[in-house]
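job 3f2a | input accepted
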Amino acid sequence: MWDTASRQEELDAWIEDFSQWQAWAATWGNRREPGWFRSARSRRPKPDPPLWLFQACEGVALDPDAPTEPCQLLSEWSGGAAAATQPILNRTATAGSEDTDKITWWEHVHLDGGWPAMQSGVSIYGVLGMHATTTVKGRFQIFVAPGAMLMNVPTADGNRAWRIATNYGIAYRLVQFTLPGTSRLAYLHLNLAKAWLLGGGPDVPTSSTDFAGLSITFKKTP
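job 3f2a | predicted structure (222 res):
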């Protein structure tokens, strides 16, 4: 039914967004969600499925025991708020909340690498790092806490040194791909972040720098 890579990617993105919306609606459907800088956050809109999915699911037998099957999710989406949140409530009742939190957390842990500085003439590079994000809307994410990265920086005497930095910024999910040589699915993200060197010392002239770089997260195995 979804026989092209672009349709499969579009479908996977919608399934992830709608599943996250179901979890949000099950918790905050009848309550106001507290905000960070205001009394309440705006209510999340229900993500629309791909238009071609309606035709693809015509006449397909639904399986309520397969909560992540696309046509079953489409039926839940079409059934309104009550029907859309019911499956996630059932899954929450049958699965431990601790396991669900672990799965969600792991899928939002990013492995960073090869981050160049955005300023011209600044030869500072982020070599390897890690950070965690939370989804704001769709593919857009923000860091939930400062990340960490190993930096290679120039020194005042003309040499280079290795330093640890902390960073904070935003991320945007670009594409899903399969790790070479494996069957493991992952997501590629573009990140914009500011990094602050920890203990740079007088020999390092720059204490903070803006970066643009890539990261990957691993998709949950069904």
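job 3f2a | Helices lie at 5-28, 51-56, 70-78, 80-94, 97-107.
job 3f2a | closed
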